């Protein structure tokens, strides 16, 4: 029951004032001059004023509201170290049990810090979770909050987040020790084959000094062991081995008493960039397709092109002096002997042996391929003739011998079954229909006993494009000189740019165009696996997590030669993926996540924010006789009011609220009905009676 008095005037307050104030003044004047019946007139006026003000007694039935108390639970990965998870679970259950004893508290449990598949942030953001828990609660109903965490919180505000007691229960043990390694300076890009300078530091929270061995690995292969001094910034110089994503990893051994070895390794993702590719294009004679090759190579800013064209064969003598046949002399010795290994790719475009190159130089070219060079033959009718380069020492590097046939007929270049899976020709625009959505060609060179892989076929299903490996190098052979028809847009043209570029990059060992390739990448907290193969099936991928656990991920065919798989993970770090004899590395989650920058439990991070609210920070690790099961001590819960102390030696306080919900109201007018009329008549009658005497 809540009793109160309210006024519900019959007239507005200004009208009442206009009526009653003059009468009150007259009554007071009468009292001042001590007129007979002055007090009765004043009482009658008061009765009239009360009747017009209409006082009402209200009886309110209210239901008290509960104070809202939030338990914010840290579920970040650092909470999985040692016994912290067990301590956290036991503390949460203990708090819920203690709070349930008090009806005036509504308990909300919020878990935070666990990264999900869509979010690769791994900061422990407990205050954001606290704000979310109280988003629909009025400030007057907030009873307080308690955080169960290791103390490594990354969103501590400068000012208190709530106007109520905030407490923190810290998991872990005092005097913990951890050693970690981190990159101080790690460039995002590096030139392939060139030195790259980096710096790193080894940190020991135990304050120990000395030297440690640091293993340096690139893409999973150990390249060196460095000697580093604890606490000092150390220099590191590496060489980027390949274009694209490279994973540089530093790791140190675990020491006795260390919390975890998760942060005993650190990685840097470095994108390798090739310097300008050097290409030597030698055209045997002017023809329509020559400019197609030149335009394609010159349009790529990353290609340095050296192009020579034989304008007039030596057997054609017309009296022109030899020094007037070219602006500069053809430096055959410099190109094919002294500097041949400087080129990433050599292209012979409709070239035939005419004694421009000494016969010995073909042997140098074959040796260049065997040692890792790239050679592309764009063959025309001359390849089937007597002066074919197949009749030189270059034969050891060629994937096929000509049979002397030059097929002159219209045909559509088509992908072979192998070519539909090969990365050079897979998904080539226009290849997905029959006939292909590109123009016809009209000439092809016949060969016999081809080596390597036939990825395109031409007239009468004869080989049109061959790709082959010779020693450490690669050779490609185009058995037609009519690719320029696509470039000129004949019958709609064709995808000459993508085809030629893929061929050139495959020859130069571009990783993305390898037939057998396994790659993995992190997307948020999801590990994506991609298997590129020429086989019909890829099987499953074996994944080793950062903690050493293994799991199998099935790979499903998505396109010819492409198999994909993915798995949602909960661990941040470096994953090893294997399939057959191929392996790959992938980092899931943020690189060098802040979550593992410091894993030693601490009270210092939260203490300023907690002290500002009148709360308390204490460790859960049990001490003395207050210990409960599972080795922790959970303090008692005490309701407090207003600004009273919110913590004690073995208790935590939470505020109770005075807020309530109105259920019903009963009203009794004091001057209503016969009672009010009787009182008013009595007062007026008494005044009249006194005035009449």
Automatic annotation (TrEMBL):
Keyword set, alphabetical order: Membrane, Transmembrane, Transmembrane helix
Q: Which InterPro entries match?
A: Class_I_gatase-like
* Key word Transmembrane present: yes
Q: Which domain of life is it from?
A: Bacteria
Per the UniProt record, which residue ranges are transmembrane?
Answer: 12-33, 40-58, 670-689
What's the protein called, per UniProt?
Glutamine amidotransferase domain-containing protein
Q: What is the organism field in this record?
A: Aminobacter niigataensis
């Amino acid at each position: 029951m809540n009793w109160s008095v309210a006024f519900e005037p019959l007239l507005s307050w200004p009208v009442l004032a206009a009526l009653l104030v003059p009468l009150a003044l007259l009554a007071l004047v009468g009292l001042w001059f001590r007129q007979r019946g002055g007090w009765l007139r004043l009482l009658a006026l008061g009765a009239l004023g009360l009747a017009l003000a209409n006082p009402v007694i209200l009886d309110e039935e209210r239901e008290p509201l509960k104070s809202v108390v939030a338990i914010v639970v840290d579920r970040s990965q650092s909470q999985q170290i040692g016994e912290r998870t067990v301590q956290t679970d036991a503390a949460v259950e203990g708090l819920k049990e203690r709070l349930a004893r008090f009806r005036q508290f509504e308990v909300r449990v919020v878990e935070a810090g666990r990264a999900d598949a869509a979010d690769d942030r791994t900061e422990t953001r407990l205050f954001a979770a606290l704000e979310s828990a109280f988003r629909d609660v009025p400030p007057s109903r907030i009873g307080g909050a308690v955080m169960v965490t290791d103390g490594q919180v990354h969103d501590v505000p400068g000012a208190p987040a709530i106007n109520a007691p905030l407490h923190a229960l810290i998991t872990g043990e005092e005097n913990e020790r951890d050693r970690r390694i981190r990159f101080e300076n790690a460039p995002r890009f590096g030139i392939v084959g060139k030195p790259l300078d980096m710096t790193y530091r080894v940190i020991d929270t135990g304050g120990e000094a000395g030297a440690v061995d640091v293993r340096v690995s690139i893409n999973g292969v150990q390249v060196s062991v460095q000697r580093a001094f604890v606490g000092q910034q150390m220099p590191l110089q590496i060489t980027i081995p390949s274009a694209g994503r490279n994973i540089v990893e530093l790791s140190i051994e675990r020491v006795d008493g260390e919390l975890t070895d998760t942060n005993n390794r650190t990685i840097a993702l470095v994108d390798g960039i090739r310097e300008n590719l050097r290409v030597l294009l030698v055209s045997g004679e002017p023809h329509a397709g020559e400019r197609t090759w030149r335009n394609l190579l010159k349009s790529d800013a990353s290609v340095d092109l050296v192009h020579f064209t034989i304008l007039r064969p030596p057997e054609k003598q017309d009296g022109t002096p030899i020094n007037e046949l070219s602006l500069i002399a053809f430096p055959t010795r410099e190109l094919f002997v002294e500097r041949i290994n400087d080129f990433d790719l050599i292209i012979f475009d409709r070239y035939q042996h005419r004694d421009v190159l000494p016969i010995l130089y073909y042997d140098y070219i074959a040796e260049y391929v065997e040692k890792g060079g790239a050679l592309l033959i764009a063959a025309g009718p001359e390849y089937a003739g007597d002066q074919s380069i197949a009749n030189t020492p270059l034969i050891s590097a060629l994937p096929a011998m000509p049979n002397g046939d030059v097929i002159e007929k219209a045909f559509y270049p088509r992908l072979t079954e192998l070519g539909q899976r090969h990365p050079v020709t897979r998904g080539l625009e226009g290849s997905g229909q029959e006939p292909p959505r590109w123009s016809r060609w009209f000439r092809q060179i016949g060969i016999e006993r081809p080596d390597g892989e036939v990825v395109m076929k031409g007239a009468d299903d004869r080989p049109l494009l061959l790709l082959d490996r010779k020693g450490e190098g690669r050779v490609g052979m185009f058995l037609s000189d009519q690719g320029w028809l696509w470039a000129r847009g004949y019958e709609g043209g064709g995808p000459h740019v993508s085809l030629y570029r893929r061929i050139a990059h495959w020859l130069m060992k571009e990783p993305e165009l390898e037939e057998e390739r396994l790659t993995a990448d992190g997307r948020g907290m999801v590990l994506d696996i991609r298997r590129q193969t020429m086989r019909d099936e890829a099987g499953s991928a074996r994944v080793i997590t950062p903690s050493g656990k293994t799991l199998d991920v099935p790979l499903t065919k998505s396109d010819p030669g492409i198999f994909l798989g993915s798995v949602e993970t909960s661990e941040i770090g470096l994953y090893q993926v294997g399939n057959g004899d191929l392996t790959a590395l992938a980092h899931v989650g943020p690189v060098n996540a802040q979550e593992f920058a410091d894993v030693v439990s601490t009270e210092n991070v939260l203490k300023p924010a907690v002290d500002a609210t009148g709360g308390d920070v204490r460790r859960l690790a049990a001490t003395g006789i207050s210990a409960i099961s599972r080795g922790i001590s959970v303090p008692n819960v005490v309701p407090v009011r207003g600004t009273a102390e919110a913590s004690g030696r073995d208790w935590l306080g939470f505020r109770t609220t005075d807020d309530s919900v109105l259920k019903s109201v009963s009203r009794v007018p004091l001057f209503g009905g016969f009672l009010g009329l009787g009182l008013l008549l009595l007062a007026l009658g008494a005044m009249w009676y006194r005035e009449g005497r």
